[in-house]
Amino acid sequence: MPTYNKLVRDKIPNVIEATGKSFRTRNLDEEEYIKELKLKLAEEVGEYQATLDDGQAIEELADVMEIVHALARVHGSTIEEVDKVREEKANKRGGFQERIFLIDVEDE
To answer: Which residues in the chain come in under a pLDDT of 50?
Structure first.
């Protein structure tokens, strides 16, 4: 029996059950949940970085966004509030649309 020991989407147990396989799960406490969400975020970002085409990239970005939504909730916020903060930062410091790559800055 393969061991996974990782956070999975809510409906994955139903999917496994439909195949007739047995499995074990447990519910995480808040501290474990945040830790596992952070690990899952790193996993999904890695999967995004490994994509080879736009379709795969969008699929992986959707997974990243699902985790960002969950992280916003555990930190007592909403994705709308996160987006508001993102927008404020973009207005103040800009976004990344101009593809500016900083090489160096002269020290005094």
So the answer is: none
How far, CA to CA in Å, does 24 sit from each of 5, 15, 18, 29? 10, 13, 14, 17
pLDDT digits (tens, 9 = 90+) for 2-14: 999 999 999 999 9
Q: CB–CB of 81/72 below 8 Å? A: yes
CB 57 within 8 A of CB 48: yes
Q: How far is CA 8 from the centre of its chain?
A: 12
Which one-letter amino acid corresponds to residue 74? Answer: V
Place of tokens 């409906």: 11
75 neighbors 38 (Cβ within 8 angstroms): no
Q: Which of 5, 3, 10, 26 is nearest to 67 (CA)?
A: 10
Which has the closest alpha carbon to 66: 27, 18, 13, 11? 11
The SS3 assignment for 61 reads helix
